[in-house]
Amino acid sequence: MDTKHLPENIVDDRGALARREAGLPATRTQLARIEPERLHALDKISIEGLEVFANHGVFPEENALGQKFVVSVTLYTDTRRAGETDDLAASIHYGEAAHAVDEFMRAHTFKLIEAAAEGVAAMLLDRYPLAYGVRVKLEKPWAPVGLPLRTVSIEIERTRA
Question: Is 4 a catalytic residue?
C-alpha cells in the first residue's frame, strides 16, 4: 500500500508547528509553503460542481441579471492527522469551504471569470492555513457567445507566495 508523505521541500518553521499543535492558527509569515511542482504529492479535498448564481461578466446585463456559475475546488493539504485522530479541527471543513466560495462569488462582481477564479483561490488560501495550495475551476455554462456550447471555463492552481 502506498503511504503518502509530505514532500521534503515544504518550508515551515518550528513556530508554525508549535502553534498548530497547540490549536492556534499560524501567522501569515509562518504558513507552510510548497514548491508548485510538488503540490500533487499532497492529499486533496475536493468540492466538485458547486452551483452558484452570481453577477459576473463583461456585459451590463450579466451584472444586472446574474447567471449560473459552476465552481470546482481542490484544496491541497495533509489529511494524515485528521485521518489518525478523526478530528475535524485537523482538516479543512469542506462544508464551510463550499459556503465560503458561494458567499465570495455572490459578494463580489468581476468582469472576467479569470479574475473571479483568482479571487476564490486567494480567499481560500487566506482562510484555510492548512491548505498548501488550491486548484479552482470556474465554469460559465450560460456564457453569452451566440453559439451552442456546454460551458466556458478557466482552471488555475495557486500556492502560497
Answer: no
